[in-house]
Amino acid sequence: xxxxxxxxxxxxxxxxxxxxxxxxxxxxxxxxxxxxxxxxxxxxxxxxxxxxxxxxxxxxxxxxxxxxxxxxxxxxxxxxxxxxxxxxxxxxxxxxxxxxxxxxxxxxxxxxxxxxxxxxxxxxxxxxxxxxxxxxx
Length: 137
What we know:
Layout: H1 2-6, E1 9-11, H2 13-17, H3 24-35, E2 38-41, H4 42-54, H5 60-73, E3 74-77, H6 81-94, H7 98-109, E4 114-116, E5 125-126, E6 130-133
């Protein structure tokens, strides 16, 4: 399932974090989206772990369990020199924050067509092939 959806959708950290939301509608929406598979980057996994620990008070064991579920349905792409360089170019071209640019770069390099995120402008396009979608509007 991972490979079939890999070229279609990339999940930003906030989209994945909604799995843990007290807002049942958002949690259900996140679960439905993720159940279809997709792509996340190591950056997304790291940010998820940081928020889960710092803000939600989850233990490392609980975080590992949540991450295992995410990794079971999503392909994980690394942050490599190419994604770093492209991210810096996106900062210059589009005025993105550094971390948002690295997410966009990872999605582009993974060949994704949709980036699920609340952090970027809904409908925004990058490189004429990646569209930002806010699934929680």
